[in-house]
Amino acid sequence: MRRNIVVKLICLVLFSFSMQVKAQEILYGPTISYQYQKGSAVKTGGYFAFAFLGENILKTDVTANFTWTQKKFAVIPELALSFYPESWVVAPFVRTEFTPYTFTPKVGVTMATLLDLDFGYGFSIADKQDYRPLKGFTVSLRFNIPLNYKLNM
User: Where is the signal peptide (predicted)?
Assistant: First the structure.
């Protein structure tokens, strides 16, 4: 009984806090992530996010994918666009990634745009020489490190 009251109180406080958080106009900084799609890849790069039509956030990333698959090392450039329809502490988002070899639409969940977990499917648009096609289901865990983050309340 006491435990239920404590849990409900914590949920109420977190909910109240999340209702007061406002979206920042602009965020930018480095991003690092891990992705699995026919092999593991570590991605590093930068991002720029801005408020879009009220509380929505639009973010673009430019990254380099470092991968070791089929006993070969490769660096693959990537451009991504993410849309966060709500600026809640925990919110859904959609994302599209483009490389010279794949087009990958994704859906996921974010924690204040700082930590993203997403799932998608990569469609092959070209083959990388001496590699199997880079396509199929994918999952990513991404850390976005804002250099200008501040909490507006």
Answer: 1-23
